[in-house]
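One thing: mind reviewing this one?
=====
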Amino acid sequence: MADDIGTLVEGAAGAKPAIDGASAAAILLMLLDESDAATILKHLGPEEVRQLAKSMFDTANASETQIDQALEQFVTSSRSVSALAVGADTRIRTVIHEAVGNVRADNILAAIAPQRSAASLEMLRWMDVDAISALLESEHPQVGALILSVLVPDVAARAIETLDELKQADLVLRAAMLTSVPAAAIEDLESVLAAANVDGQRVAKQAIGGPSDVAKIMKKMPKQLSERTLRSLKKHDRILAQTIEEEMFIFENLRDLDSKALGTVLRAVDAAQLAIALKGSDEDMVDRCLATMSKRASETIRDEMAEMTMVKRVDVDEAQKAIMQIVRQMAAAGDIMIAGAGDDYV
């Protein structure tokens, strides 16, 4: 999170700054007029505001040297920011509307412009977890699934935790089946939030939900709850439940295993299959995996990768999925342990 908040203040050079990005951003905000600082904070999400607020308290007694470092980082990174990017969205939309008229402009921009987040959906992220749980309990399941899908995963996991088992499974199933949301569904949600004193605005469609988002939520759940929910999902839709389970621990997460566990996994994998799977990974991942193998075995894998020319993405995906199936089998047998965020999913 510190890296996200400090994007504008981290130096472009490779040298590590003396203060982290969040601290530098906090110092810069405290140097601004209160109204200017508040204007900037309005554009940030709840977690970013919370961390910046904490950093502002932590850096309240910043030294002159630290202040100079924050200003230097900001000036250095600002040099790489294009002037074209400032207010680009508004200027582009204005030009298109003036050129072809409002109706034609709306049709063109709907097809090509980045979608703007609905204010009503954004406001959900600021609501208290207990209030969100109450909405999930009382509203229609489809509205609840929409609410669940747009929340930060750890908040969604806590909000669903207090619901009964059938309600949990139903909401997770519906959220996993979401792809894009029609305007009518957004309007239903806006009515619900309006009753909860949360303002919203109309949007056409917004891509949210699906197995990947649900997998992130499930990883934040306590182990017993996530396993129970998966079992319930399998009764309704085995294929969808399997997809979610696969998304909960993907090939790139192998880098999170310790060397012993990773070596145990890779010894059970066919060398040709591993070469294909690693072909779609970065060099750091390749080095991480091959470091657990013997010199001869790692050289064999590298030779096979070097001999490959163009490898289809679908072949890489299939090889990676096959390896992750081995990982899950080993985890189920107790040979290795895999963990999600907070070590809740093993």
